[in-house]
């Protein structure tokens, strides 16, 4: 549980809820499947050979999904005023409404949670210098 609290937007309550409600992470094929189980991935719509992604599916536990979105909202509020924030989040906030960005961040957080639970690793914050080198 302590490993989960190192992720931005995940506190003690969120970590305890995840531990209580999430089954064995090895039962999910990938992080995307875990995020889909939580209902944080876009629902696909196909018609006439065109595939489009719509709103989130909301298939999973609404309490767990809500807790992750609230944590993501806290992260985005900090990022809004931070000059040193991750470029991905800054760009996301520039092009999408705040609540859409919060769900996208919750999706990303869910995928990180799955990786930590499945592989037994600890969370390592991305190096800002490495990110800047990749984005330039």
TrEMBL record:
This is Blr2056 protein. Pfam families: Transposase_20. GO terms for biological process: DNA transposition. One of its GO terms (molecular function) is transposase activity. NCBIfam families: transpos_IS110. The lineage of its organism: Bacteria, Pseudomonadati, Pseudomonadota, Alphaproteobacteria, Hyphomicrobiales. It comes from Bradyrhizobium diazoefficiens (strain JCM 10833 / BCRC 13528 / IAM 13628 / NBRC 14792 / USDA 110). InterPro entries: Transpos_IS110 (IPR047650), Transposase_20 (IPR003346). Transmembrane segments: none annotated. It comes from the Bacteria. Residues 2-78 form the Transposase IS116/IS110/IS902 C-terminal domain.
